[in-house]
Design a protein that fits this description.
The chain is mostly helical and 317 residues long. The chain has a single domain, classed as Ribonucleotide Reductase, subunit A, CATH 1.10.620.20. It contains 11 helices and no strands. Helix 1 packs antiparallel against helix 7 and helix 7 packs antiparallel against helix 8. The longest helix has 41 residues. It comes from Nocardia amikacinitolerans. One of its GO terms (biological process) is fatty acid biosynthetic process. GO terms for molecular function: metal ion binding; stearoyl-[ACP] desaturase activity. This is Acyl-[acyl-carrier-protein] desaturase.
Length: 317
């Protein structure tokens, strides 16, 4: 039975791996500028500057695209909370501190470019958007009481970054605007590189402290929620996004959870002790349940969409 390592010991042991992955990230990350992704010539003044305030008919976005853009942007807006959690549970020294700073600076661009796009194109009500931002950022986000420490947080951000990549990419498609699609492809590419850093660090943690890391991983996946949960209109918007394939249970299982677990060989490893084996068994049971939930969700969604299509056919021309 291996001895558990403290958070400080884990961070110290993994710092060379963090430095290696930071350097890898910096070699692959592309510099880009938010102003290059916004159609500024579509902009005009609002009433306070002698122009015209927002009206619903000014937006070219569907209700689904609006819900997805608002949800994704408000999620990005909560960056100060994420920075606090990462800085507290990683470190602000050495390679860890360099990564935290770089990640925060890169993430900040996402909120900048998305908001500029929505305001310039009048895609959503800017007043309602600002009111929602104030509420969401004032509430902030915090980890559950038993989610302290590096292992739980690095596991969470691995899956969260990949989930965000999927959501941004599909939001770009549903906007039916090549400018929005290009912009969100760029944001999704950042999220993918961030995910790779965290995935590699979590994989290294599994090698270093298999039981501790497996227990943290199971805790995260069996109670996973997206970071935007709790924002204004979260339930309505997340249901719309799931209903229209922007981020749903099938994508969560097939495009996020399963590929990462496979990358780590979670169900093939033989280096777990009793606690790690027990945690893996719990995760296996959860994965089976998630698979059943996916099928149930898809059946319900198909019935709902069929009912809506039938109602549409009955509408007068």
């Amino acid at each position: 039975m291996t001895k558990d390592l403290t958070q400080l010991e884990i961070l110290t042991e993994l710092e060379p791996v963090a430095e290696q992955n930071l350097n890898r990230h910096l070699s692959m990350a592309k510099d880009w500028h938010p102003h290059d992704y916004v159609p500024w010539d579509e902009g005009r003044n609002f009433a306070a500057m002698g122009g015209v305030d927002w009206e619903p008919e000014q937006s070219r976005l569907s209700e689904v695209a609006k819900a997805a853009m608002i949800t994704n942007l408000l999620t990005e807006d909560n960056l100060p909370s994420y920075h606090r959690l990462i800085a507290q549970n990683f470190s602000q020294d050495g390679a860890w501190g360099s990564w935290v700073g770089r990640w925060t600076a890169e993430e900040n661009r996402h909120g900048i470019v998305m908001r500029d796009y929505l305001v310039v194109t009048r895609g959503v009500d800017p007043v309602a958007l600002e009111q929602a931002r104030m509420i969401h950022m004032t509430q902030g986000v915090d980890a559950p009481p038993d989610w302290d420490g590096f292992l739980v947080n690095v596991a969470y951000v691995t899956f969260q970054e990949l989930a965000t990549r999927v959501s941004h990419r599909n939001t770009g498609k549903v906007c039916e605007d090549p400018i929005a699609d290009r912009m969100l492809q760029r944001v999704a590419a950042d999220e993918n590189l961030h995910m790779i850093f965290y995935r590699n660090m979590c994989g290294a943690a599994l090698d270093l402290v298999p039981d501790q890391a497996m227990m943290a991983l199971t805790r995260v996946l069996t109670s996973f929620v997206m970071p935007g949960a709790g924002m204004p209109n979260w339930r309505r918007n997340s249901v719309l996004m799931a209903k229209h394939g922007i981020y749903d249970l099938r994508q969560h299982l097939d495009e996020v959870v399963a590929p990462v677990l496979k990358k780590w060989d979670v169900f093939e490893r033989n280096d777990f002790g009793p606690r790690g084996e027990q945690a893996r068994d719990r995760l296996a049971e959860f994965m089976e349940k998630l698979g059943r939930d996916v099928l149930k969700f898809e059946e319900q969604r198909d019935r709902m969409l069929a009912r809506e299509a039938a109602k549409g056919d009955l509408q007068p021309a």
